[in-house]
Amino acid sequence: MSNLTSSHITMFVLIGLPGLESSYVYIAFVFFLVYLISVVGNVTLLYIIRIDQSLHQPMYIFLGMLSSIDLVLTNSTTPKLLSILWFHSQEIFFEACLTQMFFIHSFASMESCILLAMAFDRYLAICHPLRYNSLLTYRLVSMTGLSSVGRGIVMVLPLPILFRRLSLCEHNVIQHSFCDHIAVVKLACSDTTVNSFYGLVVALLVVAVDLIFIILSYGLILRAVFNLSSNEARIKALGTCTSHICAILVFYTTVVLSSVVQRFGKNVPVFIVILLANVYLMLPPLINPIVYGVKTRQVRNQIKRLLEMSDCK
After folding, report:
1. What is the pLDDT of residue 303?
2. What does the alpha-carbon distance between residue 12 and residue 179 come to, in Å, rounded to a whole number?
3. I need a labelling partner for 269 at 20 to 30 A (CA). Which of 130, 206, 237, 307 fits?
4. In whole angstroms, what is the distance from residue 304 CA to residue 313 CA?
5. Which residues pair with 92 in a beta bridge?
6. What is the pLDDT of residue 312?
7. How confident is the model at residue 1, as a pLDDT?
8. What is the mean pLDDT of each successive set of 10 residues along the chain, which is 313 residues long?
9. Which of 217-229 are b and which e, b meaning 16 or more Cβ less than 10 Å from the residue's Cβ?
10. Are 73 and 102 in contact (CB under 8 A)?
11. For residue 76, what pLDDT is reported?
12. CA 23 – CA 192 distance, rounded (Å)
């Protein structure tokens, strides 16, 4: 089979969900419903944080950053997936594919960084409540947000750049529903060791390092909580962490499961691998606004006011 440089490829073809073609309409309806709830939920959360002065605190600013990232993630993949399922529009331009790859992986890195920042926020609020405002200043919050963006861009930008140097086989069919780095690199006929190694390093640095620091933060939080004098105080302290813990579990569980299956699940059906990859991008944007809306009193009250105002109209 002859090789082509990446400059000769103008279009890729995404396979969608092979083996489930007869159920595309029903699957698309479920994905569209998830997408609609995710967009409405995160936009509502951002609006509430913006209009409510009492929510202009580090915890909710980080939550606003998380919602913004979730909106980018779900909009980077779901519209194209729906066009594949509903209209069989499987083609994607070369540049659009690399752009999608960059946005998916860079914003996933940013989300992990913000979840770590929120763990630090909970650590300061519980372990150092008297110094919370002096330690976690708005300047530090802003720098954290910019750092998460910078880290995501710097770490992920080499992925599409390294891909461009590869020689590609004549076929241009990506075994995925979006331009995931691993799936795209598999199109190459030349040596992909550097690409695969760098992709693995990025995944480990983002997931493993952030997760280690999150676990460390919660270890210190639990130690402080168990040193409190009353059960009521312990329950109240832990109650401030439940939404964040849910966000952590949803994000990291799906990311790790998807990565492990995609890299090592050789006997797993392709549609399962692809579905898991879509779940890790679609589930956090769906769950996060619901969890924070239910568990956070200020957000819950603002939602009630908005619903009451809409009823009056």
Report:
1. 79
2. 9
3. 206
4. 14
5. 12
6. 63
7. 43
8. 57 94 94 97 93 90 96 96 95 95 96 96 92 93 96 96 87 92 90 92 90 95 87 86 93 90 84 92 94 82 76 61
9. bbeebeebbeeee
10. no
11. 95
12. 35
3-state secondary structure of 180: coil
Burial class (CB in 10 A: 0-12, 13-18, 19+), 258: buried
* Number of residues written out for the chain: 313
Parallel/antiparallel/unpaired status of strands 3-5 and 11-14: unpaired
Phi, psi of 91 (to 5 degrees): -75, 145
Query: What letter would DSSP give residue 54?
Result: G
Q: How many Å apart are CA 236 and CA 312, to the nearest integer?
A: 35
Which CATH superfamily is 3-312 part of? Rhodopsin 7-helix transmembrane proteins (1.20.1070.10)
Half-sphere exposure of 57 (CA within 13 A, CB side): 12
**Could you tell me which of 191, 187, 195, 174 has the C-alpha nearest to residue 277?**
174
The ranges assigned to domains in the chain are 3-312
Residues 82/32, Cβ–Cβ less than 8 Å? yes
Q: What's the helix, strand, coil split of the chain in %, to 5?
A: 80, 5, 15
Give the C-alpha separation, 243 to 21, whole Å. 37
Q: Which pair of structure tokens corresponds to residue 18?
A: 């092979």
pTM: 0.93
SS3 assignment, position 188: strand
Q: DSSP 3-state assignment of 14?
A: strand
* Closest CA relative to residue 94, chosen from 6, 182, 199: 6
